[in-house]
């Protein structure tokens, strides 16, 4: 059964046709590693994870690349112009008193912790922009050779008027971009849509990260890195390119322009864009104090997996509104799912329900309709199928959903954990709170959580 994808380039749902049989080459624009990654960003990475898992579920081998932007992403991008402002990495280094490399390492490490907590399967490779400078310079050289570039006082620019198909993805003419921009246009640019391929280092300050080039010391423009890394790792034409919807208009349009002009080949067959996560019905932003992280979620007592379930509850092309109540709702549903599975009896020889699996595959292959796939999972559990069949079906579906369902199936609490919980209950009865707390920690170290009921009884659950 064909996998159907809404292609942002054709603005239509299309049957997916891979270039190589049974193989998918896929690239996703990852985080700019100058600050903590937000739950908005993670919505987009969860989309990448779902697409990756759905292809694997259909028997494809997926070569999946995600990048770290650790240079060249300027603050002007927020106002619609990626060629002006400070380099976010350099600014963070200045502010935090660490080198740009240390800043990147620190936030990459933090990003990966959240990534793993959300049970996102790691890509084939995470690529760092600063490790592909050579490829980026080669790309600028290729464009220069073919007459697509020009020089200004601050860098080497791509001349978008030389690429006839410019605007095919964004749907925007140069004029409408000019009107939409909230920053003063660079007067040296020949066209408002032109963008920097290579920027020169300032003459008065030394940057943390800069490289020699045929045009002068400097650093690569933000858009350039994704083209260079995608083509180096996956080839000149790739199957799928993903990112958040904010990248469609400019960043991805520019990736197409520079890649296709350099190689003369189509860069990407299917463009996918994930809708944004909002908070309380509005924009999420650092300045608004609502750019929550996975750690913020945990500090409020929620599981990271509840956030994953929350993401799965909406189709990727619909805006999703984050509220704490909605997260609580997602967590309750997830815990209910775990509780139901924990109550079932397993049997080794049960096989999944073909009928439910087929409905599930229809949903996920129909432009990644995960909310519908979740509904099929719930229908399976509510059906009158034998319990072992329900378990086998749910576990099979979880290869796509990634909710760790297997961990909760018919588990028994080990006797030593039950004994510890009883000991803790006795300490509590006697009012010896510090010892009761110590035993609770021992229980947690063994991977369980003890919940107290009002009548002095307790319930043990596996930690998520
Ligand atoms: P950045 O770190 O700003 O380069 O963004 C990294 C990725 O997260 C990109 O693919 C963005 O499109 C995506 N992104 C940023 N903000 C949000 C949001 N609020 N909701 C969903 N995706 C987002
Ligand atoms: Zn990119």
UniProtKB/TrEMBL annotation:
Motif 'KMSKS' region location, chain numbering: 283-287
Domain named tRNA synthetases class I catalytic: residues: 16-330
Enzyme class: ligase
Cofactor binding description: Binds 1 zinc ion per subunit.
Swiss-Prot/TrEMBL catalytic activity: tRNA(Cys) + L-cysteine + ATP = L-cysteinyl-tRNA(Cys) + AMP + diphosphate
Cofactors, names only: Zn(2+)
Highest taxon above the source species: Bacteria
Alphabetically ordered keywords of this record: Aminoacyl-tRNA synthetase, ATP-binding, Cytoplasm, Ligase, Metal-binding, Nucleotide-binding, Protein biosynthesis, Zinc
Residues noted as binding Zn(2+) in the record, renumbered to the chain: 29, 226, 251, 255
GO cellular component, one term: cytosol
InterPro entries: Cys-tRNA-ligase, Cys-tRNA/MSH_ligase, Rossmann-like_a/b/a_fold, tRNA-synt_1_cat_dom, tRNAsynth_Ia_anticodon-bd
Annotated GO MF terms: ATP binding; cysteine-tRNA ligase activity; zinc ion binding
UniProt record, GO biological process: cysteinyl-tRNA aminoacylation
This enzyme's EC code(s): 6.1.1.16
Residues reported to bind ATP: 286
Compartment(s) where it occurs, according to its Swiss-Prot or TrEMBL record: Cytoplasm
Protein family per UniProt: Belongs to the class-I aminoacyl-tRNA synthetase family.
Quaternary organization: Monomer.
Name of this chain's protein: Cysteine--tRNA ligase
């Amino acid at each position: 059964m064909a996998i159907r994808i809404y292609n942002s380039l054709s603005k239509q749902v299309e049957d997916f046709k891979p270039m190589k049989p049974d193989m998918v080459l896929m690239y996703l624009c990852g985080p700019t590693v100058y600050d903590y990654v937000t739950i908005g960003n993670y919505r987009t990475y969860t989309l990448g994870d779902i697409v990756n898992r759905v292809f694997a579920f259909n028997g494809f081998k997926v070569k999946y690349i995600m990048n770290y932007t650790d240079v060249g992403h300027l603050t002007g991008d927020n106002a619609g112009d990626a060629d002006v402002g400070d380099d976010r990495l350099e600014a963070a280094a200045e502010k935090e008193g660490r080198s740009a490399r240390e800043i990147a390492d620190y936030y990459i490490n933090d990003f990966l912790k959240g990534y793993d907590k959300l049970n996102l399967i790691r890509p084939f490779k995470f690529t760092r922009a600063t490790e592909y400078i050579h490829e980026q310079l080669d790309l600028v050289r290729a464009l220069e050779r073919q007459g697509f570039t020009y020089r200004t006082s601050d860098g080497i620019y791509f001349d978008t008027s030389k690429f006839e198909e410019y605007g095919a993805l964004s749907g925007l003419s140069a004029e409408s971009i000019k009107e939409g921009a909230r920053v003063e246009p660079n007067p040296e640019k020949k066209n408002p849509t032109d963008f920097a391929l290579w920027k020169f280092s300032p003459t008065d300050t030394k940057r943390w990260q800069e490289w020699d080039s045929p045009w002068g010391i400097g650093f690569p423009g933000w858009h350039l890195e994704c083209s260079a890394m995608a083509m180096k790792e996956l080839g000149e034409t790739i199957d799928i390119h993903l990112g958040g919807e904010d990248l469609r208009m400019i960043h991805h349009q520019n990736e197409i322009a520079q890649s296709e002009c350099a190689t003369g080949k189509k860069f990407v067959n299917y463009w996918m864009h994930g809708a944004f996560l909002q908070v309380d019905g509005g924009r999420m932003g650092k300045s608004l104090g609502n750019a929550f992280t996975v750690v913020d979620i945990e500090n409020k007592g929620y599981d990271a997996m509840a956030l994953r379930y929350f993401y799965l509850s909406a189709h990727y092309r619909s805006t999703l509104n984050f509220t704490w109540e909605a997260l609580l709702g997602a967590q309750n549903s997830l815990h209910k799912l775990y509780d139901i599975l924990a109550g079932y009896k397993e049997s080794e020889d049960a096989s999944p329900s073909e009928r439910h699996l087929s409905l599930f595959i229809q949903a996920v292959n129909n432009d990644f309709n995960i909310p519908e796939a979740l509904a099929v999972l719930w229908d399976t559990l509510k059906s009158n199928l034998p319990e072992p069949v329900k378990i086998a079906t749910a576990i099979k579906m979880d290869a796509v959903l990634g909710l760790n369902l297997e961990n909760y199936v018919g588990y028994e609490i080990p006797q030593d954990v039950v004994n510890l919980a009883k000991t803790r209950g006795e300490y509590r009865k006697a009012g010896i709170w510090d010892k009761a707390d110590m035993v609770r920690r021992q229980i947690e170290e063994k991977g369980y959580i003890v919940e107290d009921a009002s009548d002095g009884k307790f319930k043990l659950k596996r930690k998520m």
